[in-house]
Design a protein that fits this description.
Layout lengths: L1 E5 L3 H12 L7 E6 L4 E3 L16 H8 L3 E4 L11 H10 L4 E3 L2 H17 L4 E2 L11 H7 L5 E7 L2 H11 L4 H10 L8 H4 L2 H14 L10 E2 L7 H9 L2 E11 L5 E11 L12 E7 L4 E6 L4 H18 L1
Parallel strand pairs: 1-2, 1-4, 4-5, 5-6, 8-10
Antiparallel strand pairs: 2-3, 7-9, 7-11, 9-10, 11-12
Helix pairs in contact: 1-11, 3-4, 4-9, 6-7
Bound molecules: NADP nicotinamide-adenine-dinucleotide phosphate.
Length: about 325
């Protein structure tokens, strides 16, 4: 199966390594790559470090690449989800299935992208947009038939967890951000993590897909961790509390949705306060299946790559 990648940063390279390791079992080939600055094509399959050619627009790139599936993994734009939304539409316009790890399009335009994909019988998958490759959307789609999700709560941003843990040791927010950057987990612009944009985008994406909302990250009541001090975290710890950035979505009795992303002071035995390091936790509050939890223990870019791979296997089985 011929794959075109739009974006080739940490996730793209981890995905290329994963395909390389699975070559004997899965006949997937990356035959074209586009970044902001370069393109590369080889119908026989590109190496992990390809020879780069000149840039092209996404439509030109797709027309030349002639892929069977497109993977959109450009940088997050939490403000309006572009240009990733247009990249996905360019693939749909050519009848091509799309996989993305970019939460911008799911947070800003899920309802319309889903409708466009359905109208043209095109498969569209996005497992890695929230909690790296841990099954969230695929779990609900495949294993929770008939269930209505009326609430979501989660600790979904690894960078703020690392920063708050550093501050709990008396170090500064800037020290924490530097550490998260060294670990390769911060967004290209770490302000998106610290100001809560990444978490708000995940909250909107989860609500859009799992609660049939039609919201954007701007509609999430958002407070970041920028105003928290090491002293505050240490005082909370001394009193048996943990301060962490929590995302919540709740369907109210009148049918409206309450969406929040903000630092919360949780009792230290709260499930949401009990995942260490970069680990994430998500709770789905349902009607027929109580509360279900998903924990991603120390996720890394390899898990994000696996989420793309899982979506690819799913699509390959249906084509
Ligand atoms: N890293 C993670 O652990 C993780 C986890 C879950 C989801 N994600 C999501 O996955 C996506 C990729 O993350 P990453 O860590 O791989 O990012 P990254 O290392 O910053 O790489 C981004 C890539 O996108 C390319 N790009 C940016 N704008 C583009 C445009 N307009 N047209 C074509 N290419 C463009 C960049 O090209 P240049 O190099 O030419 O600038 C680069 O190759 C993001 O949306 C991120 O939020 C990441």
């Amino acid at each position: 199966m011929r794959i075109a990648l739009i974006g080739y940063g940490s996730v793209g390279k981890a995905f290329a390594r994963l395909l390389e390791s699975q070559r004997k079992r899965f006949p997937f080939r990356i035959t074209a790559i586009q970044t902001r600055k370069y393109t590369a094509y080889d119908p026989k399959g590109l190496p992990i470090d390809p020879e780069w050619g000149p840039p092209a627009s996404v439509p030109e790139f797709l027309d030349k690449a002639q892929p069977e599936v497109v993977i959109e993994i450009t940088s997050l734009n939490p403000v309006d989800g572009e240009p990733a939304i247009s990249h996905i539409r360019a693939a749909f316009a050519r009848g091509l299935p799309v996989i993305t790890a970019n939460k911008g399009p799911i947070a800003h335009a899920y309802a319309s992208l889903r409708a466009e994909a359905a109208a043209h019988h095109i498969l569209f998958r996005f497992e890695s947009t929230v909690m790296d490759g841990s099954p969230v959307f695929n779990l609900v789609r495949n294993n929770l038939p008939g269930v209505t999700i009326h609430g979501i709560s989660g600790v979904l941003n690894s960078t703020t967890k690392v920063v708050l843990a550093e501050m709990a040791q008396g170090r500064s927010l800037a020290d924490g951000v530097r550490l998260a950057q060294e670990m390769g987990i911060a967004e290209a612009d770490p302000a998106y993590d610290i100001d809560g944009w990444d978490s708000a985008a995940k909250t909107a994406a989860l609500a859009n897909v799992l609660m049939d909302a039609n919201v954007t990250p701007q509609m999430v009541e958002r407070t970041g961790i920028g105003a928290i001090t090491p002293e505050e975290i240490q005082a909370a710890a001394a009193a048996g509390f943990v301060i962490t950035l929590v995302s919540r979505a709740k369907r109210e009795a009148d049918g409206s949705l309450t969406l929040t992303t903000r630092p919360e002071r949780l009792p230290e035995d709260d499930l949401l306060a009990n995942v260490d390091g970069t680990s994430n936790v998500l709770l789905l509050h349902t009607d027929l299946m109580g509360t279900q939890g998903i924990v991603s223990v120390t996720p890394g870019v390899e898990q994000t790559a696996y989420g793309l791979f899982a979506d690819l296997v799913d699509i390959a089985q249906q084509l």
